[in-house]
């Protein structure tokens, strides 16, 4: 069977099938929040997307650093979760809440990764098709814009663990995309445990 369609061009449907049959497993494609680096408080810059580990790494909590040791994040008054979860300002120490280490998301490292053709197992014919399948454009708002975007949602009470959590919020402030690596990893894990039928 030829991988070329009748029009002489690579078949988009065949590439989709390849992905669906997991010749390119999702777990090989890293996500933006996989690119964390540990920093000291003094290294933080306005507009950084911050992350701390909670419950011995059971989950991560995210915020936008707005300067002067302040953040904006989705949380309850005194903890990440509770009865009054909303987007609010907090001190850096409130956000850390005893965490010994703080991380920032390295968007430049992620951009280098998604622009690297070695991201995929094959190049050449499939590279063009994969460019159509996956959005490799990463728009980054400036630090000032990122902070303003965070401020524009202060008071929001639309928290949803799967659809609009602290990570969705922080990534949206920086990129305009509402994404959560934690949620996607959870979905991928469930899919690995209970894979659907393979269409042949």
What brief labels describe this structure?
200 residues, alpha+beta, endopeptidase fold (from Nostoc punctiforme), six-stranded antiparallel β-sheet, 7 helices, 6 strands, globular
Describe the 3D structure.
The chain has 200 residues and is of the alpha+beta class. It has one domain (19-189): endopeptidase fold (from Nostoc punctiforme), CATH 3.90.1720. Helix content is 32%, strand content 18%. The chain contains 7 helices and 6 strands. It has a 6-stranded antiparallel sheet. Strand 2 and strand 3 form a beta hairpin. It is globular, with a radius of gyration of 20 Å.
Structural class: alpha+beta
H/E topology pattern = HEEEEEHEHHHHH
Q: What's the number of helices?
A: 7
Number of strands: 6
Task: State the helical fraction.
Answer: 25-40%
List the helices and strands and how they pair.
Layout: H1 12-20, E1 36-39, E2 49-54, E3 59-67, E4 70-75, E5 86-91, H2 92-96, E6 102-105, H3 107-114, H4 125-133, H5 143-152, H6 166-175, H7 181-193
Antiparallel strand pairs: 1-6, 2-3, 2-6, 3-4, 4-5
Helix pairs in contact: 5-6
């Amino acid at each position: 069977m030829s991988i070329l369609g009748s029009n002489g061009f690579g078949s988009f449907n065949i590439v989709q099938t390849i992905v669906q049959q997991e010749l390119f497993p999702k777990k090989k494609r890293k996500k933006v929040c996989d690119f964390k680096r540990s920093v000291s408080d003094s290294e933080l810059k306005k507009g950084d997307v911050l992350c701390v580990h909670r419950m011995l790494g059971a989950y991560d909590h995210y915020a936008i650093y707005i300067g002067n040791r302040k953040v904006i994040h989705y949380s309850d008054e005194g903890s990440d979760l509770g009865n009054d979860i909303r987007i609010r300002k907090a001190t850096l120490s409130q956000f850390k809440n005893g965490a010994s280490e703080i991380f920032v998301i390295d968007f430049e490292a992620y951009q280098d990764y998604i622009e690297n053709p070695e991201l995929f197992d094959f190049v050449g014919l499939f590279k063009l098709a994969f460019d159509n399948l996956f959005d490799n454009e990463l728009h980054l708002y400036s630090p000032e814009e990122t902070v303003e975007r965070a401020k524009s949602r202060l008071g929001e009470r639309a928290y949803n663990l799967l659809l609009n959590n602290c990570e969705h919020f922080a990534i949206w402030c920086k990129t305009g995309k509402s994404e959560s690596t934690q949620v996607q990893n959870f979905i991928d894990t469930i899919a690995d445990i209970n894979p659907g039928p393979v269409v042949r």
